[in-house]
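Record type: monomer structure entry
Structure origin: computed from sequence
Chain ID: A
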Amino acid sequence: MSELTHQQTGSDKPIVVTGATGYVGGRLVPRLLESGLPVRCVARQSEKLADRPWRSQVEVVEADLSNPAEVAGALEGAKAAYYLVHSMNTSGDFEHLELQIAEVFSEVADTAGLEQVIYLGGLGHDSDKHSAHLASRHRVGKVLASGKTPVTELRAAVIIGSGSASFEMLRSLVEVLPLMVVPRWVTKTRCQPIAIDDVLNHLVTVLGHAPALGEVLEIGGPENLTYRQMMDAYADVAGLRRRIILPVPVLTPRLSSHWVNLVSPLPIQLARSLIDSLTSDVVVGERSIERIGYQPTHGLQEAIEMSVARIRDLELPTRWTDASAEKTSGGAALPTPGDPSWSGGVVLKDTRNRTTTATRENVMAVIRSVGGDNGWFAFNRLWAIRGFIDKLIGGVGLRRGRRHPTELRAGDAVDFFTVVAINESSMRLRAEMRLPGHAWLEWEVEEKSTESTITQRALFAPRGLFGRLYWWVLVPIHVPIFGRMLSGIVAAAEVQATAEKSATAS
């Protein structure tokens, strides 16, 4: 990645990021901050940035980009700006609105004396016939470049990263459908998917580069693929069998979007816009971007691996705010705060809460004693049967027990679980039994005044359709097991608390 400093950009004037609440913008901001650059984020609603880990390090300006006065306030005193605004709505006036906003921004940028505007558009040659959304993105680039301010336009196709709408659609289709009837373009249309990490590095690299008039830089990954090949690549990385794909000539983009809507969490309007954009070839014509100094480093398989790494490596955060994605290798490809609810893959949950008069120390002492000879506080015979079945199919079973009857530390085995995190108020176990996915059990205890609240979660990240069926078939069994387990923990903690009080009183 190109490391820029205040000296390289020439001043301490802020770098403006529009679309900071969006997928790319939200990941670009920490990259700029890591380079030591002052950043000003522009958002229609500033509260949408409240949960970002970098919020205290940036200036935030509320602005409606269709309002010239508000745009002027957002760009005042700035050195350069990233234009990362794009509508994926299917309303009839979206093209007019996009052009109107671009015109306002271009005019105000000239007045504000910006030295550079960097725009991320969509890949595709202007001479080709494209979807309405892709054509609109090209027109927006031309409008931005029509003013006096130098504009660097980057054009990218499918961006691979958790939270990217295109990637989430790919993930959902491959995970859920072992057999697909698809429009013929899925096996014929070509594109060059690019890792979000490479997109961000390109965006940082061109900052401070003096662009030629109307400069357009095409960016893409190293592979020229069909959407079917991308599906095959995802299946390989996710450990799934390659899907049976039957192309037919009769599925229109509109019909396809309804199909995607049935099997994925993406909103239907977004799915329709994505499918429209995928029906024409979007490949790099020339790699003029590489002359500036950065070349893409991630192929499709590696990009997918980074995107699913959180679940693949069994490090699932309960809340996105627990994650430190910006600080890890390939972290931009992982979920971050502010991502849409449909991003990050499917995680199924059984969450339960109980309040008790026992102290946090009493509750955690009981939680740390689960498994082994102490059992699981409910239906121990069922746990034993599950362990026996796991052993029959080549799993670890229950025979591992525990190292100590009451003490646990990270890395310890607890029957067919492993302790992955433990402290004075919480514990997380990762399941090691044979499963069509990944599973965790976790507890958090919060003490307030004379009561403690226990939150117990069973989490399951299914692999493929069978993983989802596995979870839903077992729901009637999970409900009593997890309910009784939490009740048993509470009862044991209250017995312990009563015994301590009696001992103190005597």
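Annotation 1: The CA atoms of residues 259 and 278 lie 15 Å apart.
Annotation 2: Residues 348-505 form a domain with the Alpha-D-Glucose-1,6-Bisphosphate; Chain A, domain 4 fold (CATH 3.30.530.20).
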